[in-house]
Design brief:
The protein is of the alpha/beta class and 387 residues long. The protein is 36% helix and 26% strand. The chain has 2 domains: 262 residues, Zn peptidases (Aminopeptidase); 96 residues, Alpha-Beta Plaits. It binds zinc ion (2 copies). InterPro entries: Amidohydrolase, Bact_exopeptidase_dim_dom, Peptidase_M20, Peptidase_M20_dimer.
Length: 387
């Protein structure tokens, strides 16, 4: 693999950082130890500026090139947070915290971006500036959005942003990417159907919310099958059905339904929200009850920009000899917020034949480090070639 030789030399050091982070997982915005470690390393590398506390526990580092005639600034982003999962890998560096685990490989992402920062600080073989972005709370907390809301893009005049995620099932160090929508918007709904509870032996005296909710669950399936254009992607999943009474002989007063919606475009997202409201109030009215629908918008769809995606794929080909066209992912990714503010691209790097992300036996593959770090470094050196 024509990876940068320096990363073959640095691999064992970067692996040590990765395993240290793995052993000490932190969830959501609670990445205090990890953020401190990142800031300390960036200082050790000789970064020109290090700022902590962006997006609560996020860290930003600036590395200036040998020259800056281009005036360009590129942002490289990694996520630092772990998941509330109890680790079952049995590794000697497994999580020391019960119920917390790096099950999505953000330990690897952080270590790889630190490796790239070390190399870029040593060599500075580019014309412009690099901003390394370490964000907390990717797993549902919107840490990327908070960093943007703190004015990060304007403060450092970031013009393009790049992100990377490891991908189990893909050969180690192989890359995959696609232009346009890539990861889904992740929304939630919380519906309360209200009826009139009573004795289960006297249904004529009740408005039965269980029957009403069952109809609503079935009718919600028609958003994907009857309302959406068949060529568009949408998932509507009801994941929780809770009656207000658990008794055998009581018709419950209310039923709460919860679930998730995944879409790839603003149009589908709007359609889902509109139809969930219409279906629930319509079904409730049919049975003489009422519906209260809360639709919570989470991460927007993550959309890769055309030009930067092509460039990112070219760099990946140079690093690993290949870059496949990736399939759509119905999971969410809060790098979406950064790509809404600036053009850029997000790439997948193979993690080999490992357990899937978010599984208690998952582990980041340290063999992917040279490819991942090389991709980061080449993005910078090729996008802002030394004058
Ligand atoms: Zn994840
Ligand atoms: Zn992840």
């Amino acid at each position: 693999m024509p990876v940068k030789n320096r990363f073959a030399e640095l691999q064992s050091e970067i692996t040590e950082w990765r395993r240290d982070i793995h052993e000490n997982p932190e969830i959501l915005f609670e990445t205090h130890r990890t953020s401190a470690l990142v800031a300390e390393k960036l200082k050790e590398f000789g970064c020109d500026e290090i700022v902590t506390g962006i997006g609560r526990t996020g860290v930003v580092g600036v590395i200036k090139g040998k020259s800056n005639t281009s005036g360009k600034v590129i942002g490289l982003r990694a996520d630092m947070d772990a998941l509330p999962i109890h680790e079952a890998t049995g590794l000697d560096y497994a999580s020391k915290t019960d119920g917390a685990m790096h099950a999505c490989g953000h330990d690897g992402h952080t270590a790889m971006l630190l490796g790239a920062a070390k190399y870029l600080s040593e060599t500075r073989n580019f014309d412009g500036s690099v901003v390394v972005i370490f964000q907390p709370a990717e797993e549902g907390g919107g840490g990327g959005k908070e960093m943007c809301d703190d004015g990060m893009m304007d403060r450092w005049n970031i013009q393009e942003v790049y992100g990377m995620h490891n991908w189990p099932g893909k050969p180690v160090g192989a890359f995959g990417i696609r232009a346009g929508a890539f990861f889904a918007a992740t929304d939630q709904f919380d519906i309360t159907l209200e009826g009139f509870g009573g004795h289960a032996a006297m249904p004529q005296k009740t408005v039965d919310t269980t029957v009403m909710a069952a109809q609503a669950v079935m009718a919600l399936q028609t958003i994907a099958s009857r309302n959406a254009d068949p060529v568009d992607q949408i998932v509507v999943s009801v994941t929780s059905f809770e009656t207000s009474s658990k008794a055998f002989n009581v018709i419950p007063q209310s039923v709460q339904l919860k679930g998730t919606v995944r879409t790839m475009s603003a149009e589908m997202r709007d359609l889902a929200e509109k139809r969930i409201n219409e279906i629930c109030s319509g079904v409730a009215a049919t049975f003489g009850g009422s519906a209260d629908v809360t639709y919570i918008r989470g991460y927007p769809a993550m959309v890769n920009h055309e030009e930067q995606t092509e460039f990112a794929a070219d760099v990946a080909r140079k690093v690993s000899g290949g870059c496949e066209h990736a399939e759509l992912v119905m999971g969410g990714e809060d790098f979406a917020f950064m790509l809404e503010e600036r053009p850029g691209a997000y790439i997948l790097v193979g993690n080999g034949d490992t357990a899937a992300v978010h599984h208690p036996e998952y582990n980041f593959n340290d063999e992917a480090i040279p490819a991942g770090c090389s991709w980061w470094a080449e993005i910078v050196e090729q996008r802002m070639p030394a004058a």
